[in-house]
Batch of 3 targets.
Target 1
Amino acid sequence: MQEKLDQLRAEALDAVKAAGSKEALEELRVGYLGRKGEITALSKQIKNVPPENRREFGQAVNELKNNVAKAIENRLGDLKKGRFDAIEEIERIDVTLPGLNPPRGHLHPLTQIQSELEDIFSSMGFSILDGPELETDENNFEKTKYSGRPSRPRHAGTPSGPKTETCFEPTPLRFRFVVWPK
């Protein structure tokens, strides 16, 4: 009986060392330690052994079962470690490199719509003019020949230096474009 146990131990340990995947190890575990496994069958035969040899035989079977279970567990750990080592080699991360900057914010919805409209009108051949929101009194009224307009504010013309006012119409912008074309 001892020879059969030694042969089964050598066979099981060699099979565990040769196993190359988690599935193969599971098959070996079921084949040796499962309900219908070879070592389990030996455990069931303890009752057929003479009473004076049962203790030694039972201890030998339990030792065999523990050795095979430990070998399967160790091999599974080695396979996992090998898989992680392979992944580590493939996906090595250099922590000294600068990180990626995430995109910050977005344009205001009105600005997005303005950009889309400018693209549409530009594609149709229109020129997009952009000028200052504050305009000098000269560009706003004097050069446009509308100095006597009733829309001219009453405070325009106070002697405080070059007066800047809100641009009331696109007329000063057209004047700038005609005089200084791009």
Target 2
Amino acid sequence: MVENSSLLGALAPFCLRRTGSGAHYSNAFNAFNAFNAFHAFNAFNDLLPMTDSSSNSQVSGVKPQPSVSSREHLRVTVYTPDSGVRHPLELVKGMLADTFCHRSRDFAWRMFVKNTAALYRQSVLGYLWILIPPILTSLVWVFLNRSKVVSVASTGDAPYALYVLTGNLIWQGATLALAMPIRTVTQEKGTLTKINVPREAYLVAGFLQALLNACIPMLLLVPIMVYFKVMPGLSLLTGSALFLGSVACAYTAGMLLTPVGLLYKDIGNAIPIVSRFWFFVTPVAFAIPATGWARAVFVWNPATGFLETTRSLLLGGAVNHALLPYVLGYGLLSIGVLFFGLVLYRLSMPIIIERMSS
């Protein structure tokens, strides 16, 4: 209960008005309002449970007990100064539990829906903006090829327009997936520093966004393949699966860069620049050189095997079997990078969040 003297002191501005000669009552109306406020405050204060500050427990009333269901779902987290590297089994167990638990999946799905709805909220064209870049880039290369400014070698049975469009769609899906982990976690900095949720949920939400950005443009291939009378058959399913694997490998590489990218914006700024240069050493708009050091650069390029094999399967062409060992090798390497990236992300995020909050 608040002392009357303190309450009257707090209510003094209601009933006193200071002038040059001192304080005096302004009128009876202000005094009446102060009287009503005093009794209203006392009535509200009587409704509050009395507490004992020394024991921080309620004096009157029965302390509410949690229900059985709430106790069963109550999660206890113990924070210690020890590094997780000292207990690798517990580190991996906790990492997998936080990645695939119901709480993480639910939060990741809600974040994915929110980001997808807000992506083109005030846009007239909406998701067409995902289709415009590969279409315009393909039109430029078709124009350069037909005007003989750039001479492109044989692209097999597929028309060059379909060949270059397929390559651009695959390339865009991979490059967007490479930049998506840093973009997603950076975009959710406010939530990351205020809500205690499994931090792996942000990576899951970013991966769902990367899959959406990659799959929507690929729907454009269906009517174009019908127009050019290209029927790949069952290889279309194999090519689609390999395309999703390519997106996953690119996202894994971006996830490995996420902890450093959150500390230094140079990583996020460098990804588009490196991608533009990388475009010209990848057979996106032209075939792999037949001889010379350029062929070695193209063949050892991690993106070459995935892109060339995926495009051949999608268009029903002959697969270059010389690239399959590279696809398999880089695919297995991506699994190791995925595991190492998750461990690095889990160990570094508490420090990064602390620096974000400071």
Target 3
Amino acid sequence: LAALTGLTSLQMSGNALRGAVPSVTPLTQLVTLDVGVKRFTSVHGSVWEHPALRNLDLSSNNLSGPIPGTVDLPALRTLNLSVSGLGGGIPVGLYTNSPLLNALDLSENAFTGPINAAIGALPLRELDFSDNAMGGPIPDQFLQLQDTITDLALTSNGCFTASQAVINFIVQFDPDWADGCAAP
């Protein structure tokens, strides 16, 4: 891959590759990296810090552990980490260092903790946190998504708490967002 410095799109989804997602450092013009539906077990750190990457799909892999706290993807628009085996807290850098992010799918993993207030500053159209172990307070900054969001899923998590205004916003998209809780 190192010799393909002008490569803008690398789509390797659905084949039998396994091991680590390789370094993308030499691929300075890479805009799309799709390595979904694989057997990858780790991701080279350069993937999480690529300045030109706009679309990243690591879904349906055999990864483990958290998203690195060093995430710095300033051009990122879409991120799909669904069914990837990741967990732990979602680092605030995912929100603050990816200011153009408009589609975020972290569904069917083992993410924990609350939703960070920094999410409200993103131009998100699609957000899927369903089927994780997240919970806790949803900050009022979540309401800043009202002007952009078209698809929202929070079901099958721990218990969230939120102001009535946030609850009213969420139920427009995900009426079962508090399933499993005695009361939202």
